[in-house]
UniProtKB/TrEMBL annotation:
Lineage: Bacteria, Pseudomonadati, Pseudomonadota, Gammaproteobacteria, Alteromonadales
Cross-referenced Pfam families: Phage_integrase
Domain spans labelled Tyr recombinase: 184-357
Record InterPro entries: DNA_brk_join_enz, Integrase-like_cat_sf, Integrase_catalytic, Tyrosine_recombinase_XerCD
Name of the protein this chain belongs to: Site-specific integrase
Keywords: DNA integration, DNA recombination
Iron-sulfur among keywords: no
Amino acid sequence: MATISIEKVLTKKGNHYKARVRETKHGKRLFEKSKTFGKKSEAENWANSLAAQIKERGIPSIKPCDKEILIGDLITLYLEDPITSRDLGRSKNAVLRRLRSYDIALIPAHELTATHIVQHCRTRLVEATAPTPQTVYQDVTYLRSVINVAGPMFGYNANIHAHNEAIPTLIKYQLIGRSEKRDRRPTQIELDLAEAGLQKRQSHHASYIPLVDIFHMSLSTCMRLGEITRILWDDFDEDAGIVTIRDRKNPRNSKGNHCVIPLFQDAINIIKRQPKTDRRIFPYKSTSISAAWQRTCLENHIYDLHYHDLRAEGACRLFERGLNIVEISRITGHRDINVLNNIYLRLSVKDIHRRIN
């Protein structure tokens, strides 16, 4: 017997009602169809009529174009599927979850048009929170990744051409934009303040994360926070002075992208003094560390300094130590040398003068 559910959806334009009719057998989904209405009574009438039709005539044959799904439901499938959600980052996860609260989530995936995407971006840019075009760009790219797998992964029809039509217009009228290159380099005073703030925070009786050690580890190794919290004791070779970073971030494929990097003595000392209570050397959540960093910067009036900037600062220090760009790329893991050239833009004229004299 078909089951009916009516879900109230709050959007920017008010309340909508999403009706869903589903037929299952022994836990296996045989049929599902959903549609959104402005009134609850309309949603109930449509759902009851479809359920009665299924009871009387059986499950209707489904053509490829009939496999409809709302974009919001498609996003939910994407977030909950063990394959598509396997390597989902925190930022993409948050953006997709937020997208489900906008009007675009109520559009059937096969009816998505360039106009819908442009309208969503226009709506986002006039919000009270005033997101930047760079932030809105995330909405567009992450939604595209969901639309592109609607058919191959889930068997639903979706318009995969809408983004190709929308993006030229979005770029032309600056409704979206790529992230600007950062040239922020912390001063020594800011780093000292940050270290003192982290020390104070980790000294609290309820704290258990060695924030200062991780802070210095970031500067010394140029590792991302997620990489530091992932390395195992088995990955550390004290005699050789190296550590293996497994599945290091890579634009093409992170799986199997293992990198072996040399460690300076300060990093070796930091690792050696960690207690062996876990397979991981730093068995802590990267989100907790980044949150502590943000609060520390706020408390000490250090503005516009991201934790990821410590990675670039570490690369600048490697340059100042005399390493060449190829040697530095082996440590930072950058495959594109141009990325390192952009990091060098953070070096001031005084830094370069000090380096060559």
